[in-house]
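Final report, closing paragraph on structural work. Over the funding period we assembled a curated collection of sequence-structure pairs, and we close with a single example.
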Amino acid sequence: MLIAKYGFKHLSTGDILRSEIAAQTPLGLEAKKIMDRGQLVPDEVVIGMISSALEINPQANGFLFDGFPRTEAQSEALDKLLKIKQTEIGVVLALQVSEQELVKRLLNRGLTSGRTDDNNEDVIRARITEYHRKTTVVADYYKKFNKVVDIPGEGSADEIFKSLCAEIDKRQ
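Its predicted structure, as stored:
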């Protein structure tokens, strides 16, 4: 809905990795070698792929980052890249959803997703704990620059969308 309304480009690092590998770009081939060894793709490679994605989407009114950054080092690297591109993160919209609601949503998604990790409440709760442990540092990093806005993430999709739009509209 945000993409349709604002003309943003969705940048999922997972999608970018798969696309670069499928296109057999130099970065994609490097990432594939690393992944084939069972290792995580280094931040420098991911940043290079994000840089390419920014360059091939000059018409975008902005970008929604998905799955990146996940660490303070990645946040700093992204900010450096964006500075080179003469832009910056405008806002980090943090959807606030209770653990009970997240578990309910993921169990419901598990009914159709085919993902085994969406069918076990203990696994879901462990994922939520891990998510909070890792992403808190990213929020803390961007809070230093007054860029984090908490948005209620419970309610109807339309209510949440309106709250997100209100924050985006303040910055346009």
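The chain has a mean pLDDT of 92. The chain is about 60% helix and 10% strand. We thank the funder for supporting this effort.
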